[in-house]
């Protein structure tokens, strides 16, 4: 950090006034000393006050990032932006841009957790484009919560089919170009200490532009949209939503996607649960664990089936390669603070995507490691490298923890 300079106080010694034969009145002596002091201040050399140091462009950038994780109580919204190149085995080389905002809905209540919002954009040499926002809005006195996300994706992607056996066959790999929009919002009421419940809505639109092998879709359409309504109940004792060090998070959701909402041939319901736990194990060390389950009943479209891969689920697998009606997943992660704003993580996990008992037995292993840099207070930029079966691997560049 470049110092801006310090203002030096001027201190003057008051010299003794010699007494003459005539006695000098006390008032005159005080006036004389004050005059000398004022004169010495006004005639002080100009170089006793340091001037602000002018910073070049690089120094300004360094100073900017030095301050991004410091809480700014004087600002209604604390917003910072970061960007840079990255590489992913899914999307190849690209440029990622992330903007993060923190704020309190009641600035006078410093015990109120921060609300947060993250805007992201990714552009890759493979033609992949993603734009979106994800956030948590905490109302005054924590009476309500709004959790939301919205994303736009243009994906020159790959598709292997539906079901473990087809997805596990490398020969089924086919190109699938698509445009996708998705929206999800949960509005939660506080029912008691750490307990929340409320309605939610989710909407998904997919427009498949081309696919080399239509038989892999098993008669489903490339293009369509789906609207769902449902409810959520949760228990949340985490100390920080975006980077928990201790606490418990349990969530159960039930959604319905009936035909009368305009969902066409795809009428189904989804039951999902999430169980996350966080424990401090030693200085700077946190062990985090997660169990996920998703079960679809009815006729879900291929784009909304349960899948693994991506930035949160089995990092290292191609997002959506393995998909089916149901999934179960578990992962354990060690998070270790190293120095200042730098941390590292190591994790192991496993999952199964299935539609019956036989395919449930087929397990996908996962492990990996990552680097964390505290971009804002309790909000990390993360770079993860994950590995899976049959030499599958991938790189993830994102914001906030995987869970």
CATH topology of the largest domain: Porin
State the separation between the terminal residues, measured CA to CA.
33 Å
Instruction: Specify the CATH homologous superfamily of the largest domain.
Output: membrane protein fhac: a member of the omp85/tpsb transporter family
Instruction: Pick out the low-confidence regions.
Output: 1-44
Number of strands: 18
The total tally of domains equals 2
Write the element-wise H/E pattern from the N-terminal end onward.
HHEEEEEHEEEEEEEEEEHEEE
C-alpha Rg (nearest Å)? 30 Å
* Count of discrete alpha- or pi-helical segments spanning 4 or more residues: 4
CATH architecture heading of the largest domain: Beta Barrel
Brief overview, please?
With 403 residues, the chain is mostly beta strands. It has helices spanning 26-42, 57-67, 164-167, 357-360; strands at residues 77-88, 92-103, 115-124, 129-138, 144-159, 174-192, 195-211, 223-236, 247-257, 268-282, 285-298, 306-307, 323-324, 326-339, 342-354, 364-376, 379-387, 393-399.
What does this structure look like?
This protein starts with about 25 loop residues before the first helix and ends with a strand. It is built from four helices and 18 strands. Mean pLDDT is about 85; it is low at about 1-45. About 10% of the residues lie in helices and about 50% in strands. A hairpin with a 2-residue loop joins strand 10 and strand 11. A 16-stranded antiparallel beta sheet has the order 1-2-3-4-5-6-7-8-9-10-11-14-15-16-17-18. Strands 12-13 form a two-stranded antiparallel sheet. It has helices at about 25-40, 55-65, 165, 355-360, and strands at about 75-90, 90-105, 115-125, 130-140, 145-160, 175-190, 195-210, 225-235, 245-255, 270-280, 285-300, 305, 325, 325-340, 340-355, 365-375, 380-385, 395-400. By secondary structure, the protein is mostly beta strands. The protein is globular, with a radius of gyration of 30 Å. It folds into two domains: about 1-65, no CATH class; about 70-400, Beta Barrel (Porin), CATH 2.40.160.50.
């Amino acid at each position: 950090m470049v110092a801006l300079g310090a203002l030096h106080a001027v201190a003057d010694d008051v010299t003794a006034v010699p007494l003459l034969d005539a006695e000098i009145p006390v008032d005159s002596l005080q006036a004389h000393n004050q005059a000398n002091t004022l004169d010495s201040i006004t005639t002080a050399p100009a170089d006793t006050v340091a001037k602000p140091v002018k910073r070049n462009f690089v120094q300004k950038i360094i100073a900017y990032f030095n301050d991004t994780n410091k809480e700014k109580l004087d600002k209604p919204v604390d917003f910072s932006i970061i960007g840079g190149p990255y590489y992913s085995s899914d999307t190849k080389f690209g440029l990622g841009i992330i903007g993060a905002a923190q704020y309190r809905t009641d600035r006078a209540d410093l015990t109120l957790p921060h609300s947060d919002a993250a805007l992201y954009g990714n552009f890759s040499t493979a033609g992949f484009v993603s734009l979106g926002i994800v956030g948590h809005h905490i109302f005054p006195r924590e009476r309500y919560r709004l959790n939301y996300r919205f994303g736009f994706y243009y994906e020159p992607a790959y598709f292997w089919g539906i079901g473990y056996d087809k997805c596990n066959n490398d020969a089924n790999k086919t190109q699938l170009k698509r445009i996708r929009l998705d929206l999800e919002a949960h509005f939660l009421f506080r029912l008691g200490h750490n307990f929340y419940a409320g309605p939610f809505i989710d909407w998904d639109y997919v427009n498949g532009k081309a696919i080399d092998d239509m038989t892999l879709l098993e008669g489903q359409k490339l293009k369509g949209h789906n609207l769902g309504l449902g409810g959520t109940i949760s228990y949340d004792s985490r100390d920080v939503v975006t980077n928990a060090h201790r606490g418990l998070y349990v969530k159960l959701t039930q959604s319905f996607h009936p035909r009368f909402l305009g969902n066409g041939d795809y009428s189904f319901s989804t039951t999902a649960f999430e169980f996350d736990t966080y424990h401090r194990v030693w200085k700077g060390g946190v062990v985090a664990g997660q169990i996920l389950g998703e079960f679809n009943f009815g006729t879900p479209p291929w784009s909304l089936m349960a899948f693994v891969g991506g930035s949160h689920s089995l990092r290292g697998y191609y997002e959506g390669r393995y998909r089916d009606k149901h999934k179960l997943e578990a992962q354990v992660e060690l998070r270790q603070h190293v120095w200042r704003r730098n941390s590292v993580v190591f994790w192991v996990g496993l999952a199964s995507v299935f539609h019956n008992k036989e395919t449930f037995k087929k397990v996908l292993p996962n492990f990996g490691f990552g680097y964390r840099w505290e971009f804002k207070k309790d909000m990390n930029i993360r770079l993860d490298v994950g590995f899976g079966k049959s030499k599958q691997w991938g790189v993830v560049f994102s914001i906030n923890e995987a869970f």
